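Help! Submission page says 'invalid entity' but I think these are all valid:
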Amino acid sequence: MNCWDPRIEEMPKEDLQRMQYKLLKSLVYRLYSFSAFYHDRMKEQKVHPDDICKLSDVHKLPFMFKRDLRDNYPDKIFTASKDELVRYHVSSGTTGKPTVVGYTQNDLNNWTTSLARGLTSVGLGRGDVIQVSYGYGLFTGGLGMHYGAERIGATVLPASVGNTERQIELMQDLGATAIACTPSYLLHIGEVAEKMGVNIKKDTRLRTGILGAEPWTDGMRNRIQDWLGIRAYDIYGTSELSGPMFTECAEQKGFHIWSDIALVEVIDPKTGESLEAGEKGELTITILQKEALPMIRYRIGDITTMEEDICACGRTHPRIQRIQGRVDDMLIIRGINVFPSQVEYALMAIPDVGEHFQIVVERKGALDDMLVRVELNKESFSDKINDIMKIRQKVEHRLRNSLNVNADVELVEPGSLPRFEGKSKKVIDKRSM
Amino acid sequence: MFWDKKIETLKTDDLQALQLKRLKKTISQAQNVGFFKKRLADAGISASSIKTLDDIQKIPFTKKQDLREGYPFGFFAVPIKEIVRIHTTSGTTGKPTVVGYTQKDLDVWADLIARNMTMVGVGKEDIFQNMVNYGMFTGGLGFHYGAEKIGMTVIPSATGNTKRQIEMIRDFGVTTIHCTPSYAMHLSEVAEEMGESLDSLKTGIFGAEPWSESVRHSLEKRLGVTAFDSYGLSELFGPGVAFECEERNGLHIWHDSYLVEIIDPNTGERVSDGERGELVVTPLVKEAMPLLRYRTGDVTMLIEDGCLCKRAQKIARITGRSDDMLVIRGINVFPSQIEHVLLKIPEVGNQFMVYIDRINYLDEMTVEVEINRDFFSGELTDLAKIQKKVGKELRDSLELRTTVRLVEPGSLPRFEGKAKRVMDRREEI
């Protein structure tokens, strides 16, 4: 097994937890003393740093939400001086003010280290040519992956997004062995390559995909892997945590969350109670060594489960399952919770349909109405009404079984749904328009 | 203020000794590149036959077109696993020019930018908004790494969304900006419309296209900055090659890292100090991709007078090109690239004209091309389709938005001698 830092990555669990406790304790003391925001929050919650006597006492600490960042725009809760700040990233935010994240040099180092471990764990290193096709600039995806790939000594192609044909030319001509982008963009690249007559499997050296910034399923993974001849790994993070931070290892069984960097809990989003390993809930994350913008029990809004067993790769750090949806993305259809990822999961099990779909929710009278538009596969695309009807019934049946809700299905021509270079937009909720 | 006072103010003798040592090393490094190995062998030159700096004149020039033949990795002097970064820049035809960097190259490059920025008085307490393209273009990441090295706070805002750029300058108290001078003019207009005075700004670093003293005055007045000219090109790492000091009377080129010659572009002979000619540079510190006597195509001169800041000899601000390269919104475009794109599209002919205008301080390029009768059915939708296709192909290849006008076959001028296909109608900025 390749490890970037074997001492930390394979440290016995008890030692990791001891280290986490120490880091948590000093973080809480530091913030209680130097951050007005956290001081007030802890007071409100009637908790003092002295009350944190063991790791599980983290439960006593107050939660933090995205709105806390927005309310304190741009930098009111930063705990580093202007001199110490070396970077700002800004996420556009779909509603209202953007979220601003500041970094000290140590913050950048920890972020980069986390990625260096992750990239090494999927077998990348010196000699690899990594095409970074996330947007560069204020978005954390581009520069984050760039620094991680540079740290492991790989050759970095800072391709950024857009100009897809040029991207494919560069991939071929410069011998890219790995690409980092959103899964939606890789699908788009694959399609454009086919149109150009480039077979990614045969005509390029691409072997690895690091795909993130939006949730995607194992079904999608299988399709991407088979189609493009690569191993596709998920990567997790958001700008509030620094950016893309945690990858799967070669086992492809969830994200390794480095214990010296983050303390994760999974909670019941309604009650705020902690859940056991294996139970599904909302991810809550404490970044243990963040200087500029500390995060204690940040409610990130992502739905997952935690795995405490030791991974087959030998790394001892806890894992979380791939993200099954966001609390914000959850659709309530006639009282039933539906995540877009569940729809993707159901669709990818049907060989007749393609990778692109769209969910349209409308209110018809008093009832919610869900329509799933999905592209047919090129091979299944036919002008025989009977064939189409059969596939449609199959899809409707499958969706009903896995979502427990009726959905109308519209099969559309391959290539007719929108394609995306960054994060995709799969849900159109007309109820809120 | 100095980033590296010793090297920046080295005495002439010491500087020349250092240059000679580094030149020999560069020639040995260049022997790892097939192209140079053959060139040097043909000219009967090796590192040991260089006794003085003037001996460099025995080495043939390297031109932009030469680099095309090495695409993609033919000019790398180290194995690919030593290369940690690849950038691309405009080539003279379809394929871009590829430049590679070792870890040491990246460190040296960031150090040069740190020198430049320190020279104009910005430091770790400054907040820097970097409003140029990131990605394959060297301008964004180059300045980003230099500013980070100094310990400034970097806002990697890249290009676009001018209103948001202005809000960030206001909300983050930005003190230093980097962009093209024409984008800065545009920014100042939008700020005025928004009623934002941008009081926190104090330093403006402008480059990637030539600009005049009158634009300097105008930018300083409108943005409240002191404006500095920045020069560089991707083949020589990127930005950071030469930079104005606080005197703002010519640019200091870093002689320990770049050996400078000014030549008559027609004869290849050196011209004297104070005479204009083409800048030819031999980088002395590049590992991954050494170059010998690289013809930049930029027209300047060596300034005779010394500088009050005590740094070494300056070059004058760039006044033009010795070839036909155009700089459009900071992006380098060769007319041959346009021709190459059009040749690949059967729906249009081979005759074309390029018009360049400046509208609201921003460059606009219009390409006129003749339609090919065989592909024209008389339907208007066909025309729109072809126009869109040509626009997309040009954009993908030049990384630049252009306006495409389709014209009747036979209506564009034919040239018997040297074709004059480019009409640059921009007023000087």
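Support: the input was valid. A stray whitespace character was the problem, and the output above is from the cleaned input. The longest helix of chain B spans residues 12-30.
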